[in-house]
TrEMBL record, chains A, B, C, D:
Pfam families xrefs: FmdA_AmdA (PF03069)
Any one GO MF annotation of this record: hydrolase activity, acting on carbon-nitrogen (but not peptide) bonds, in linear amides
NCBIfam families: FormamaseFmdA
UniProt-recorded name of the protein: Acetamidase/formamidase family protein
């Protein structure tokens, strides 16, 4: 049996677990060391460290303190790893904690993080998803059942000081261009809620003051929320510090491309079984800037899709130049309108797009002035026929359920 | 045998073919009428109407007059189609013209259209792709061979006057925000090179003066450049005018997501065999704004990919807010750098990303401030192993070929 | 455009086309020669040479002279091919003749060939399938529409004299073990209806007297009826004579595993575009006895199946020892009974299993005394839901159609 | 968390676990009862109940007492299930026991069970496969690594007395046709080693005397060894006795079609998480004789294959009439010869065909006198390129490993 290098106790605060951290900083001590070729298990909290409960109230989503996220397990040091190497990570398997076979999805209040469609869904809402083996379903979103494309939303190696400084400078300067914006343009370092693993005292204080927040994906990978980084995948990470320092967290049972609901995919506590090895000098050899990866041979094979197009003209008729973000947003809104014809509420439809193995494709990005994006909705996950036909849609979902909502205080 | 409703003669100018047009306008007369349930064939020019030749010079790409494109075959009227219906189009099959078994890909000069990576590839370049049954390969991009994902880059119904006015107003206003920009923000109506099908005289002049350019995708579909709209797919188009008025053109033998090279995919003259039917009142019944579609059961099944990540920090280090366009651009640049390690020139790599069945996925669009996009490069199309390994890359491509280039005059 | 080396005129008897033959013999002269690396097109008759018509009578199926089949196009000589080489054949594309967009499927009378289920379907019956681009449907088998998995039922190289003698000896000896059996155990050489290509006079008579019949698959490949040898596939054939002598015919628009209906798949006249090359000495290098092949990246991607099990206890309760033939027969009978619950006649169901992209898997062959085989029926080809459910089946097919039947005279 | 209804302790003899049985008989008491809709977990021994060890000796395979197998967990009664119903079983997930992350494959001695190729591999041999998350590899078969297609080899409901009598009569009569055969034609009831679950005393003795052996697949399913009955699949079983009485065992981490090595696939101890429901009267409604099933959306997606053909002429040149068993045997032998060219021993190659996700397809079963079968070998599971090419094969496997062998005493 592979060794579990890091354990987490869901009844304990993640701040009390010294093998967990919630900021990126080169000074965070390795939680454990392994040799190249080793395989091992890391347990993880859900990204909020247990702030969201399996109940029917969205108040926890409304009130969550987003300065505390994401709680990552690690860093793991790999003997012999040096800056410029590629750290090869095989995600041999991963899953939910056996004592926690459920996950959550939600939309943050516009006042506290928002989301991709926060103009349309400005209040905190939540759905709970139960796991039955490889499948999941929700009491808040009836009529669907699908196999999970389990993956870590967040994984990567520690930055070195130079890269950290680049991040902080880049993002703090960016915030300064619109400091009053809600939600903000980016999140600056914030020492008060920083958890720096085994660091204590002054060293901790110093690192906490400049530790990069974990929210955005960056050069090292990080919070990429790539659903296809699933169990069985192989990832090649740039190494910046001696030992690499691999950390992982934010496990998802399933997610649609874009993680549009932000809070988030189907978020869960879980474990990752991985093997590590090295390509010495691989960064230069292969010209690597961001991580690259190979997908798993074992992913849910949904192949019948209903595909929604969107272009970069927003819902108010305004023109945006080759803007894929706007185009995908339109495709999402189009899909939501469609799903409402079958009885779903808007919130249920939005939640579905954030959780199901929906694909978001970039279709055309050169046909001025409009980008085109497509949203691929798998039809096989529905308990009824959602294809269009001469008969028109039927109200398969009867309107007696919806996502709990919590209005801003 | 299905009837060929529209024929094109590649030796003839498309301007001399009255069943072809290159603008969108409700007054363009139907080229032919069919009944619901009918299947028929439309032949098409390549999108430039023959301006690009099967040779080893890029001067034609440099000099092409982009006010002439795209030459579409149609419009086809469907009896009984009324505004608010959905026109169901089955793309039963499509292919290259039997006397023209090749296609082209190219990058426009930055002075004449540009492209997704025009800062890095500012000059006109071209590659020619030969078709061998279901496969294609290029004398300008060695080491690859792949099955075509044949599709129309451009297909849709005629707009009504109100929709046309919306387009023109929206885009002309937009151009006005940066009228000197090169390339321009959008393309306004341009009567001089308009081809309005069977319209003649004053009616033609009036329509040409306000006919919408065919470049962008819009609410009716149009130039979506969705590679997955492939032979065997079923598309549901909103109908705006009596009869629908379906036109099609810009056929591609293959294309990567984004059609990043702009000129374009693997562009070809060809034919489309389609069947049409109607869902009466389908626009309201299903809440349709843009077309929706179902993919084909018969598409190239490449499944082993090398996946490149990109984030919305551009190559100069500048931060962009959740900008998928920038993120995909970075993923493309990352892939090009990688391919160069195997001996490809940058232009060859860029061309490959524009032509091969590369997927562009939207991965994370909520993790402020960075969007994350992924580019999926199928590994099976290469004649050699492009996976990373401890050995490092080998120079499989020997540098004795490249894309022809034509510098600005 | 690739050259069409062999043309066939469907209005002409195949006996009048000297580039066609219906027996295997090393003395058949090459119809054409090509160089390694060449690609070219061969047109083919349907396997019966036009004996079966697009009409609603099964009399042609009843009366067909099975000593005349299969009419093959070739042999094509490849310069430099020597015995012991592997001839690599890329099936670049293939399709129906443009003037013949239909195919037939049928069951032979038990008195004239029979079929896999001839005890249950002892009379000649026929269904006609129309092609609509990549799709096919039949007026005799309503409720289904599917994409063709187009392939040659029969392809291979000429045997040398030694191999030919082995075949004849083996099969004639075998017939002698039950010479009166109906249908016979095998088919011996039969000069009267032999067509030996360009051979004439005494040479023809001599070869016709010993030319092997084309019915069975043998060491060289031949009539393997492997549906997965589809367009885009690459096949490696053993070479026995100088030049190889590649012949092809018996094209199928689609077929279920086993070609259980025998007459046959969806049989059609068509064309094959192929490229040939050589692996010198490949037979010994790779230890090859029968052909090997790699499937195409481009095949219909049906993936939702209803799977029927069968074991090697026959429908009369008799036990057979690890007999996969019997097990698959039971799986087929089980599927037919199931389909009848939805309104299909037995003949329609049988025809469907012979034509649709049904898979036949060998499941267990060691669990004495029963073999287990499975029949995989793709659910997506049906216009209605054929899955089992608490509601029970509905009569989607109304019983107003059936296959034409022709009783023995 | 789902309840574990049946636990097994690998340190305890299965004979001491009253929720396990190794014969089929209607009198075996239910180990547990559940309601329709319930989901629950059953743990299982490996099929031999622990007789085969994780070591490098094949003596245990040589000496195993095959009258003891298979040890099944169950039967589970479903409230309300009546004869004639269909029991719907969702295989929600399954896996190896956490304290036993390995499996075995082997060939029995010809004197003790034999196997598909026992003439070529007459002695007991064994390979051990270690599990690393979703992947497996073996110290005895180097150069391969693949994702498991985890499934139960054996699952089904209890027969009623009438069906049991049919089995016993059929098989005992069959044995009588060649009573001295080695290996035997079938296995008769054998009381001495029967384990009848909770039955004791006279009732046990009576049931043991007539309890059907678990080796063959039969009408109820049973030992079908269908690799595609994998986690995520839904199976519909005929019910013969009140409560159904579902039992399961013989779990496989992976298996090739045919389970040709007989001992067996990659055999493991494990657990099955399943949900049960009923279709009342479903047997008659759907005309069901054997179980039917729908495959999982989540199976290893290997798609690049090297495909070997075999025909029903055996390796001694003897002709067999449309015999798929012989044809598949030839395809297997052809694949083994091919693999030996890359350095594998015959035993390694044979083991690989029994364990990897190899497909066995029935290709042609009507082309007298030869059946054609194909063996599909996934190329992606190899650490090297096994495709044929002009270069010829290289000895990637160096011959320093092989399967342990144990000669008959």
């Amino acid at each position: 049996m592979p060794e579990t290098l890091i354990k987490v106790d869901l009844a304990q605060s993640p701040y009390d677990n010294e093998n967990v951290h919630n900021r990126w900083h080169p000074d965070i001590p390795m939680a454990a060391w392994v040799k190249p070729g080793a395989d091992f298990i890391l347990e993880t909290y859900d990204w909020t460290g247990g702030a969201i409960k399996n109940d029917d109230s969205a108040e926890d989503v409304r009130d969550v303190d987003l300065t505390t996220v994401h709680f990552l397990s690690g860093p793991v040091g790999v003997e012999g790893a040096e800056p410029g190497d590629l750290l090869v990570v095989d995600l041999l398997d991963l899953g939910p904690k056996a004592d926690s076979l459920w996950g959550f999805n939600g939309f943050f209040s516009r006042q506290n993080g928002g989301g991709f469609l926060t103009e349309h869904f400005p209040h905190a809402q939540k759905s709970i998803w139960d796991f039955s083996g490889i499948y999941t379903q929700s009491r808040h979103v009836p009529g669907v059942n699908f196999a999970g494309l389990i993956h870590p939303g967040l994984i990567g190696c520690l930055p070195d000081k130079k890269l950290l400084d680049t991040w902080n400078e880049r993002e703090v300067d960016f915030i300064a261009t619109a400091p009053e914006r809600v939600p903000p343009l980016a999140n600056p370092p914030f020492a008060a809620t920083a958890h720096m693993g085994k660091l204590t005292g002054d060293a901790k204080a110093a690192a906490a003051a400049e530790g990069a927040r974990t929210v955005p994906p960056r050069e090292h990978g990080g919070n990429c929320d790539i659903k296809d980084l699933s169990r069985g995948a192989r990832v090649f990470f740039p190494v910046y510090v001696a030992g690499g320092g691999l950390s992982v967290g934010d496990l998802h049972f399933s997610q649609g491309d874009g993680e549009i609901t932000f809070c988030g995919a189907i978020e869960m506590a879980g474990w990752v079984h991985m093997r590590v090895s090295l390509i010495k000098g691989g960064v230069a050899k292969y010209g690597i800037k961001n991580p690259i990866f190979k997908p798993s041979p074992l992913v849910p094979n949904y192949k019948d899709f209903l595909i929604f197009e969107g272009i970069s003209v927003d819902e108010h008729g305004a023109q945006h130049y080759l803007d894929v973000h706007v185009a995908y947003r339109q495709a999402c809104l189009n899909a939501i309108e469609y799903l409402k014809k079958f009885g779903y509420t808007g919130a249920q439809a939005y939640s579905l797009l954030g959780t199901a193995p929906v694909q978001g494709h970039i279709s055309g990005v050169v046909d001025i002035p409009n980008a085109c994006a497509t949203l691929w909705l798998p039809t096989e996950i529905f308990a009824f026929d959602i294809n269009p036909g001469a008969h028109g849609p039927s109200l398969y979902v009867q309107g007696d359920t919806d996502l709990p909502i919590a209005y801003d205080k």
